[in-house]
Every structure is written in structure tokens, then in C-alpha cells.
Amino acid sequence: LIFSDEGDYDYVIEKGWEKAVPKEKAFYVNIGINIEDNDRNKEEYKLDDPALEEENTFKVIYSGSVRTVNNLKLLVDAGKIIQDKGYSDIRVLIYGGGDQVDELRQYCKDQSITNVQLYGRMEKKYVPYILSKADVCAFCYQSTPLLRFGGSMNKMFDFLASGKPIIANAKMGYSLIEGRGAGKELDSNDAEDFAAEIIKFHDMPKSERDKYGTAGRKVAEEYDIHNLCNQ
């Protein structure tokens, strides 16, 4: 058995199946990332977007699907709270397609949320450059008991490879984010909590944010697909 989450064998234990499925038959290989492709794409595929180049804004960036499971209304609501608190330099940029894009755009319009922008579907090759412009990557997900076994999401490794700090709304077992010093996991679907954490990262010295990003990049390099193939 090859599991993609580090704690998946815990499920076997929970079910009492250890004798039928001995640990020596179970292996863990995460989805990982191709660091070489990631870094090459960052240099070759640059997106012409003034919002990304704005030097005087603190950019909170999400890239990935925009569907119910991604829980992005939480991030949009956090943006509104930040706006209402008067942090005019914080921008939330959401890149990705899905059946909630139009719904969230309309929600922003109805609620007069001006610091959140949804771009819709973006080709994967642009993601490394987009994330390179982030001050913080926002990892939004529906909290589910399955996360106790760990995580193997594409976007998580995109964020780790970017070398930027990550704020996640869901705690994961065997964490590659908070557990490895790459960011914070809140275990909360409260937009107030998410907004407060964004503001905390906004207010901290850049040198401190960089420590999170450096730690995340090391994790991504550890999970480079060339290493995983050797496993």
C-alpha cells in the first residue's frame, strides 16, 4: 500500500486491521512538487498584473480551485474585516477557477468589499510567479477529520515552494506547515481569526516572515519529486 498522507496508516490502526495489513506493507510517498519546473516557470511565465507589482501593498494570495471545499468565503470575509479595520494596504488576490468564482465576485460587490479580487482560472505555469509576489499565502480548506492523517494538496506544495509564509485555516496531523515552521494553522472557520492572523503577519518584521518562508522552501525541496521517485 502506498499512502499519500503520512498518517494514513493510523486509519488502519483505528480500524484494528494491523494484522491483516502489517505496517511493513505500508509506504508513504506524498504528492510533492517538481522544484526544477516550479523555479523555471517562475522565471519564464510572468503575469502582467499591476496588482502583483504594487510595492506598497501587503499581498495575501490564494491560488487553486474556487469551490465549496476550498472555503474561500472565509478568506473573502476576512478581507472585509481587514478593510473595515482600516488596513488599506492589505490586498487579497484569489487566482483560480471554480463554481464559486461568480458567486464570490457578486458577494464582494454586494458587500462593498474592495480589497479582494478574484481573477478566475489561471494557467498553472503562472502560479510560481504569482506566488513569488505574495507576502503571505492563504491556505483555505474545509476542516475535516481526514486532515488528522496529514495533507497532500498540490496548492500546499506550491505555497511551500514559493518561500512565502502560509496561513492555513485548518490544522493537519503530521503538519508540513506549522509543524515545520512554515506558517500558522488556525483550526478555525472564523473569519475574525483569519483576519487577525493576516494582520499579525502584516505587522511583524519582514525578517520574521522570511524565516517562515525559508522553512517552507526547505520542506518543498525535501518533497521534490526526484527525491520521492528515489523513495
Produce a short descriptive summary.
The protein has helices spanning 9-14, 35-44, 50-53, 72-84, 101-110, 127-132, 154-162, 191-203, 206-222, 225-230; strands at residues 2-3, 27-28, 58-63, 90-95, 116-120, 136-139, 166-168, 183-185. It has 231 residues and is an alpha/beta fold. A six-stranded parallel beta sheet has the order 5-4-3-6-7-8, sandwiched between helices. It has a two-stranded parallel sheet with strand order 1-2.
Features of this protein?
two-stranded parallel ribbon; 13% strand; globular; 231 residues; six-stranded parallel beta sheet; alpha/beta; single chain; 10 helices
How would you describe what is shown here?
Helix 4 packs across helix 8 and helix 7 crosses helix 9. This protein has a six-stranded parallel β-sheet with strand order 5-4-3-6-7-8, with helices on both faces. Strands 1-2 form a two-stranded parallel ribbon. 36% of the residues are buried. The protein contains ten helices and eight strands. The protein starts with a strand and ends with a helix. It is globular and about 60 Å long. The protein has 231 residues and is α/β, with parallel strands linked by helices. The longest helix is centred in the C-terminal third of the chain and has 17 residues, at 206-222.
